[in-house]
Write a structure and sequence with these properties.
By secondary structure, the protein is an alpha+beta fold. The chain contains three helices and six strands, in the order H-E-E-H-E-H-E-E-E. The longest helix is centred in the middle third of the chain and has 12 residues.
């Protein structure tokens, strides 16, 4: 199957009403590394590197289950960004201080991750994921 894979990068393109606020939030508060700036007189655009990209597809039933585990109720829309970070609790606190709204406090999921939910100032819901291995939990390793 890998020989047939032609996609080499996944990009999520967000159109935001407050560009400077979003730039500060994603670059400065979240810490994404800016790798390109293609802004011109026609408009502004920057590209951030965010590590490895994956596409996670959920049906409505599973999305409801995940929301109930992580946030206590169905709260996410069609698109939610999930970002693996070293410390979901501290990153969530930093993002709230930078203007995000807490959607749900950090929880340990049924699958062992420590996840926190915030809503960025631009309205995008973020799940901050810390896997057991990143927390130093050796029980996750085989």
């Amino acid at each position: 199957m890998d020989a047939l894979a032609e996609v080499t990068e996944l990009r999520v393109a967000l159109t935001v009403p407050e560009f400077d606020e979003a730039l500060a939030f994603y670059r400065d508060a979240l810490g994404l590394r800016q790798v390109a700036d293609w802004s011109s007189a026609a408009g502004r655009v920057v590209l951030f590197e965010a590590g490895r990209a994956t596409l996670e597809l959920l049906d409505e039933a599973q999305a409801t289950t995940v929301d109930e585990i992580e946030a206590g109720q169905r709260v996410s829309g069609t698109v939610r960004l999930a970002l693996e970070v070293r410390d979901s609790e501290s990153i969530a606190g930093r993002l709230v201080a930078a203007g995000a709204a807490e959607v749900a406090p950090p929880v340990t999921t049924n699958w062992g991750d420590r996840n926190a939910r915030v809503r960025a100032p631009d309205g995008m819901q973020l799940t901050l994921v810390t896997a057991p291995a990143l927390r130093g939990d050796k029980s996750d390793e085989s």
